[in-house]
Amino acid sequence: MRLAALAFLAGVLLVQQLSALPSWWWVLLLIPAFWLASRHPLGFIGVFLLGGVLWASLRADLILRDELPLALEGQDITVEGMIADLPRTTEFGWRTVFEVQRATREDQTVTIPRRILLSVGNSHPKPSTGEHWRYTVRLRRPHGFQNPGGFDYEAHLLRNRIRARGYVRDTPGPTRLSPAGAAYAVNQLREHIGTRMRGLIGSDDQASVVVALANGDTGAVTGAQWEIYRRTGTLHLVAISGLHISLVAGIAFFFMRWLWSLPATTLLRVPAPVAGAVGGLLAASVYAALAGFVIPTQRALLMLAVALGAVVLRRRYSASQLLAAAMLGVLLFDPLSVGAAGFWLSFSAVAVIIYIVHGEGGRASWWRKWGYLQWAIAIGLAPLTLALFQQVSLVAPVANLIAVPLFDLLAVPLTLIGLATLEWLPDLIPGTCFRAAAWLLAQLWPLLEWLASQDFAIWTQPTPPAWALGFAVVGIALLLAPRGWPARWLGVVWLTPMLVVRAPAPATGEVWLTLLDVGQGLAAVVRTQRHTMVFDTGPRFSSDFDAGSAVIVPYLRHVGVDRINTLVVSHGDNDHIGGTESLRSEMAVDEILSSVPDRIDGAHTCAAGQQWAHDGVTFEMLNPRPEEASRHNNASCVMRIAGAHGAILLTGDIEARTERRLVREHGAQIGADVLVVPHHGSKTSSSDGFLRTVNPRWALLPVGYGNRFRHPHPSVLARYAKYGIEVDDTASAGALEIRLDAQGVERSRYRERARRYWFSGTARAQP
What we know:
- This protein is an alpha+beta fold.
- Helices cover 46% and strands 18% of the residues.
- The N and C termini lie far apart (57 Å).
């Protein structure tokens, strides 16, 4: 079972590395391979490997076929269907998954994806799960930011079977066609529980966490709370986890076994352990359903099903066999789940626990064993968390040592009691349970805040290469081996590559530019041998989401940068300044220059004539002049960066007026090999004289996919084409990486370099 499950996992993983799904002609060729593999003693490994390839390819192909036609993007479409998931409150209204039953455009039936993600504005009534609505919507295909080290939103939508997203139009207004039916009864129950609980708990700061422990809805947990849990390594405690499922199953098992033993006549029909197993599995299934069957609960439920089934059948299975069976079950249910961090964290954590318990010996006190377990899990998961998040929480063992018992022995049982009595007893009883759980979490919160605030709380490291991660797994196995195992100290040697391997960096005189994909906005990172400059920080989309924390910080950690030497914020528009605050909260910044220093604490004014040099590279500020200070876009900081092998010109949002002045004052001195296109390709910029003078080889466009400004303007693209300048854009390429080195100008498009079969196939901007 263990080898079979690992082989199936390898087959599924292989598919996730493909840039395109295999043709079904290739699939037919695999049939003889099945036959040949089955004839070998170890042939079952090949059978399960090929089975994983086939199953993952089939499931992915079925989802990708449900596609929004390009002709319908951005068009008004009338849809009828049901609210399929809990509506999540946003700053501007609600967001929900909508299951389409009928779609029309201009009274003609059209075919669109079955599951779409819709944003509903505050001006419209809030929908409830299961209700039947008619909306007029505008949709787009799945498209997310694509950057090194960043979150893959397109993969996230694919895993959730969402093949289009959009928003509800104001006119004609939404119409509720019918109340909620039974189609989404579980999600209706989850929404009802959340509403009732919030009414009973009140405005307690921890109310959102208690609700999440009851119904798995983490939508109300704030960004600040997530940050504390992330820095302390306690994210797994929020919402319903596999440990909580096991706790519920255990309580139900022993209660049902005791209850069944009371009347002796029932034992003659069904043994008490069998009754307990059935009761435990039913209770765990209900609780997992309340969590929305997320991956950790799937894993726990399947392990429990096999374990409790063994009780019924009077068979014995090892813990590792149970884990392997659970993994195989999860992959059969949803092979795309391997793309979720929760899959790896959940199964890896249980594997570490099994490994430790299997080799445990001696008669140490329970608290020593508990402390060792927390330390071992933190060490065991370190390579994985580095690979997934480029960071490890160093305070996690201490935080979990205290938080896990408080959550699982007190807060969760209180929440379960409140949940069980919510509809059967007076509100005083469940309300008291819920408020007591929130009070307990509030007592824990200052400790978590203090741990999270320590400078040493997080250790960051660039994403290790695959070979270093493999070495690290061997090192972890040695370090956590039972006492008496020979040469355990060699585990440190095997871990060393993961700790010392560094991402590549420019040589002296070289300049590396990365124009990050932040949608309709600008964020660029310029690196020299030992220095890093960030030019603009992209947009802020909501109070909990902006380009600084979502894009720039993960990228910098991915390439091994833990300090920004210079931050330049060209001007005050949201799409250039929006990520500044969160970037500064997560990354040390030595100096800040901006044309709007009054809006950024500690910033200095950028001004024409400023100049400095690092590592054989010269940085020169060309704009703004004092007379441009009140001219908004034309007050943008403009920088020319010149290395030994070429130059880059960063322009912010300047317009033709400032372009002409730069040409007049500097002439050919503003020439550059690479130009970041002014003002996202607006028709008010990129004048003929400016392009002739700069004479770049490459022009890079920071634009958002399907942006409402319709940037870049066709006339601007035509001008670039007229001068033979090659244009590329972040909407189609993802992050654009340029290296000015001894080989000349080297360009890399992230969507091509890291291409996966689910990536949006956006065409490059054309004149």
